[in-house]
Amino acid sequence: MDTVVKSMMEEDPEEEKKGLVLFGRDLSTVPCFRESFLYGVSSGIGVGIASFFKTSKPLLSQHIGMGAFTITTLVYWSYCRYMWSKQKFDAQLLQSALKDKIRYEGTVVEKEMEEKGILKSA
Question: Cα–Cα distance between 114 and 120 in angstroms, integer?
Fold first, then answer.
């Protein structure tokens, strides 16, 4: 939950960071963009160089490297976004559970919920 918590805590309107803007959207604010792009570039370069060493055909190596970049970027982007969404959902569940715990603390409803096993006493 570290990335979700960091993104929630980094909402500081005073400090404006400008990154790469594409179609009016700052790409530095897109979750998982940086990681997936870096993994894609490094794997594309590595696979391209390895294929050049094996085949000694530069054009074929460029195609293989570009394919590796594309596939790695898309696969890692999908995985990272899935995990980010899962963490965000878990954080929202935890936040709502904490709000309920605070809301019902010291009331009759809390005792009833503890008896049913919904709330755990600390």
Answer: 6
